[in-house]
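User: I want to check something. If I give you two sequences, will you return the structure for each one separately, not as a complex?

Assistant: Yes, each is folded on its own. Here is the first sequence with its structure:
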Amino acid sequence: MSARFEIVRTDGGQPWHARYIASNGRIVWSTEQYVEKRHAKNAIAVVAQAFSLTRVHFTYRRDVPHIQAQGVSAEVREVDER
């Protein structure tokens, strides 16, 4: 298993949150709940930018979303837990 970010959808009034899963499968970081998916996506960008000190952007590799900064990328999965 590789480390990755996840944008998670759950039931509820604020159904979106983001998290980072370490390569051992443990949740290392998680956000509060958001009303809109774009806010969870933005939270991932803020955290990635804080660690890389450069602007980050979302890309696709083989139709799988990734976040990239300073030549390093991490997979971003969308997870539906409804």
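And separately, the second sequence with its own structure:
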Amino acid sequence: MSVPIERSHWSAAIPAAAARLGVLTWLAMSLTFAGWFLLDTLRVVWGPIDRRVPFYDLAAVVESPVRLFTGIDGHRGFTTILFIVLCCLTLLTPFLPHLWRNRFAWLTWLAPLALMLVAAYLLHSRTSDEITPGPMGLADTIANDVRHIAKHVFHSARESVARKVTFASGGYLAAIGALYLAARGVYGFRSFRK
């Protein structure tokens, strides 16, 4: 039989948890928030194209990597909203060990770093997919040569494009904040005592 939690308990527990977080944790959470929502994470400069992409727009870019060059305006949809909600929930994970006294609650502090790594992996895998045509059913040498040339051209173009995408200031700030939170979470996990 579960005992219902009184409303006054939660209204007192959340401010108490916020007070126990500490200045460095608040600073790390603020850096991560600023890096994800206020500053740009990626910058693309290629000829006349100069695009900047904040972290919360990465869901739209992962859906279609060409948006790095064409822009995101008009392409934000339900996926972007879900990703923003996920980002916000991830930023609240440092409260969990102070609300739920369990050793494994400290591992939730790794969530911001894990989210950044998963987003980077998905973006990298989507942009490095082979765009070369598959076998056409032709066994002759000319078709194989054309496929080989196309593969070489696409590979060279992809490498050229990859050099035009750089990490912007928001990415660095969020990475610093997320790395601190991850280190603090591992420390809390290892030194946990009931």
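Because they were folded independently, the notes below concern the second chain alone. The two ends are 24 Å apart (CA to CA). Residues 1-8, 130-134 have pLDDT under 50 and may be disordered.
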